[in-house]
Write a structure and sequence with these properties.
There is one protein chain. The protein is α+β, with helices and mostly antiparallel strands and 392 residues long. It has 11 helices and 7 strands. The chain has a 4-stranded antiparallel β-sheet, with no helix packed on it. Strand 2 and strand 3 form a beta hairpin. Helix 6 packs parallel to helix 8 and helix 8 runs antiparallel to helix 10.
Length: 392
């Protein structure tokens, strides 16, 4: 048996339930103080959920993407910030699982992630390009077996708390802005000089501040495949699906609070349909539509993973559409729960409060910007035939 394999006593569902309970307990405090959800993240590590995506041969559990999306959804119902950090970690991890299995250093690093429950951060944004992750200004320098990188990263997801950061750059100083690589830098291989704070409307606990990143590491830590392949084959699909799953979780919890409010009103007036009941029925249907869209998207991605050669522009368009529709619908759904709950939903100190949910929901259209996605989508649709099949 592989010495790195640890068989958890409890199922993944039991472990995420315990971690989510911790996340829910501290969610409001994390939001109010804009602090990292340390208790919830420690619970996720204690439950050994940081490496579940990693193949069994490297110490993980080879958990399917559908189950990882479910974990993000469950955490989203408890604490949006914790769910986003967990999702971002697994999005970064997917780049290693899908594109690093043939490189010995990356295989060894995945063993470490599974064994030590390391947290992976993300640095794809940059001063001068904003959130356009498919372009870079900075370039990695390779000298012998050493690589060096300096990047003005306007956002690094939970950068201070990360155990390692996966960061994008141009492949070399003469490379085009779209000719990129992604490199793993361990915590002791870089410095962070803070340049931007993170006092935000929502997702406050992700602590995604901006930094001047300076790193030096062995060149073997550059992921072998071009970032264009990583983005198209795994990262963007994982991002859109896991983000959509956690946004769905946020909406689920808001709807649960609205349902509890309507039930309380029904008990006070037996035989009468309480105000808000019809609106609740309407948003329940919208919630079901999000769920169906995510499930379909996961199935499409699983097919691409089984048959990478089947990747088409239509698949990329479908993944974009999942993100666009979910990020738009969540604001509508949570906003409707606020109307149902009224002042009790507007106040922050009631069981029916949805203020944190609504503020977190507004981040969805900005991450990756819907405007940028729509611009890319419009270009792709000029050359790609629209799929009109119900079964496609």
């Amino acid at each position: 048996m592989n010495a790195h394999v640890k068989t958890p006593v409890a199922s993944v569902s039991e472990r995420i339930a315990r971690a989510a309970a911790v996340a829910a307990r501290y969610a409001d405090d994390v939001d109010q103080k804009g602090r990292f959800p340390a208790e919830a993240m420690q619970a996720l590590k204690d439950e050994r959920l940081m490496g579940v995506q990693i193949p069994v041969e490297l110490g993980g559990e080879d958990t399917p993407i559908a189950e990882i999306a479910e974990l993000c959804s469950i955490l989203g119902q408890a604490c949006g910030s914790t769910a986003m950090i967990f999702a971002m970690h697994h999005i970064k991890l997917s780049s290693l699982v899908e594109h690093g299995m043939g490189a010995e250093w990356h295989r060894g690093f995945m063993r470490r992630i599974a064994d030590e429950q390391l947290l992976l951060g993300s640095a794809t944004t940059e001063g001068g390009i904003g959130g356009n992750l498919r372009n870079s200004i900075c370039a990695i320098e390779v000298e012998g077996d050493i690589c060096r990188l300096e990047k003005e990263a306007t956002v690094i997801s939970y950068g201070v708390q990360s155990d390692a950061i996966l960061i994008t750059s141009r492949a070399h100083k003469d490379a085009a802005s779209s000719d990129q690589v992604m490199t793993v830098f361990l915590k002791d291989q870089y410095t962070l000089e803070k340049t931007h704070g993170w006092d935000t409307l929502g997702m406050r606990g992700t602590c995604s501040e901006g930094f001047l990143f300076k790193g030096e590491a062995p060149a073997e830590q550059i992921i072998p495949e071009p970032f264009a392949e990583i983005a198209a084959h795994s990262m963007l699909a994982m991002a859109h699906l896991l983000w959509s799953a956690l946004w769905y979780g946020i909406a689920v919890d808001a709807v649960h609070r609205a349902q509890a409010f309507v039930r309380a009103a029904a008990r006070k007036s037996p035989g009468q349909t309480p105000p808000g009941a019809l609106r609740l029925a309407e948003i329940s249907g919208k919630l079901q539509m999000i769920k169906t869209d995510i499930i379909h998207g996961v199935r499409q991605y699983e097919e691409i993973r089984r048959n990478p050669e089947s990747l088409t522009m239509g698949f990329l368009i479908a993944m974009n559409n999942t993100k666009l529709s979910t990020s738009t619908a969540i604001i509508d759904i949570v906003g409707q729960t606020l109307l149902i709950n009224g002042i009790m939903g507007f106040k922050n100190d009631t069981p029916f409060s949805v203020g944190r949910h609504l503020r977190d929901a507004y981040s969805a259209q900005l991450q990756i910007s819907n405007e940028r996605i729509l611009m890319n989508q419009s270009t792709m649709l000029l050359v790609n035939k629209q799929d009109m099949s119900l079964l496609g």
